[in-house]
C-alpha cells in the first residue's frame, strides 16, 4: 500500500540539517557523561550566564527570516510560538539527540503524548501496527481502544519471538512498535532481528526505550527508525516532571512535528529546564541504578521466600545472553 505519506517520506530530496539547534557546537566525539553535561546547553552571550535560561514565553517577534522560513516550510527551524518550538525545548532536544545518536528530537508534555503523536504521524487510515502483549498499559490502551476509531488496527504478539512477530505482519502493516525492555516483566525485544524484519517488509520500527534509556542501549545505532521515551522515568530521574521524547532522523522527526502541533503536547519551558538539569547527571545516575539494581536482584534471588526474580542481568534470566550482547551497563560485563 503506497499512500501519499509514503511517497513524501521516501522521495523528498530536500537536504535537512540536524536540529533545530541554537548553536553549532558538536559533542559527537564525546562520551555520554560529557554530552549529558554540555550538549545543547545555551549560555547567554550577553551576560555569560552558564546554563540554558528558562524561556518562559508563549510567542516570539516575527521577522523577515521567520516569515520566509514559514513560507518555505522550514517553520520548525524558527522561533514562532512555544507550542511549535522554544529555545528551552531546542536546548534539551539537542542534548537528547547527542545521547541517542539522533539527528533530531522532540520533547513532549508526557511519554504518552510522544507515543500517540509518533504513531498517528506514521499511520494512515487502514494501516496496521504489530505490537507486543507485554507493553505499558497506557500504550496498550491507545493501540487497543483508539486506533480503530481512526480506521487503523493492531495485532499484539510476543516481544521475544521473532517468528511470531513476522507471522503477525499483514499487507497493510506500517509500524512495528515494541519496548526494548518491557514494562513490567523485563522481557528483551531482539532489536537487530526486529530491524531486519522492518527492512524485509519496508516497515517503520519504533522502540520505547524508557526502561533502558540511551545509557544502556542506543536503538538508533541498531537501525531502529524512531526511539520514544517517557522522560518521566530515568531520563529525568527526580520525580518532578512528566515528559516524553522522540528521536530519529531529521526527516522522520519533521513528519512527527506537525502531529505534535495538532495534538498540542509540547513540553513547557520550565519542564525543559528541569529535564536538562536532570540530564546533566544522567550517565552518573544510570551507572548507579545499574549497580544497585543488580545488587538488589542478587539479594532477592538469594531469599527462600521469593520464587523468581525477573532481571536480565541475572544468569537465571532466560534472555541473559541477549542482555549481554544488546545492552551496555551492568546487564553486561563490559561496563
Ligand atoms: C514504558 C513506558 N512507556 C511510556 C510510559 C508513559 O509515559 P508518561 O507517564 O510520561 O506519559 C510509561 C509510563 O509509565 C512507561 O512505563
From TrEMBL:
Its cofactor is pyridoxal 5'-phosphate. Belongs to the trans-sulfuration enzymes family. Pfam families: Cys_Met_Meta_PP (PF01053). GO terms for biological process: transsulfuration. This is Aminotransferase class I/II-fold pyridoxal phosphate-dependent enzyme. Coiled coil: none annotated. GO terms for molecular function: carbon-sulfur lyase activity; pyridoxal phosphate binding; transaminase activity. It comes from the Bacteria. Keywords: Aminotransferase, Pyridoxal phosphate, Transferase. The keyword Acetylation does not apply. Signal peptide: none annotated. The modification N6-(pyridoxal phosphate)lysine is found at residue 233. One of its GO terms (cellular component) is cytoplasm. It comes from Lacinutrix neustonica.
